Amino acid sequence: FRRVLFRSPFFDVSERMFEGHQEVFRTALVGVGPYGSQRPILCVEPDPTTKIPHQQIRDELTTLAKQNPLTTLIEAIVITGPFPVVILHNAIIQREVLATRLGGYLS
What is the pTM of this model? Predict the structure, then answer.
């Protein structure tokens, strides 16, 4: 299977919505699976200082996702830990690396 980005005109908006949660540092919406039938998965890097259990963060984000028509198609929310980033640009997330990692985890 080839894993590529989930293409949606709303992925930036969707990610920002979840990043508004006080226990979330950043998010990345990725597609997992063969091109054309990818599953939208939200990866979450929690705030490193959070004391809240990851399951609680996931549950709160799942509730948030169900309330917005832009995010109802997200199939899973996965707490990943630190995201892989481009070395020269710490803000640029390597989404294809995340998608590949999740492909093995979710299959």
Answer: 0.82
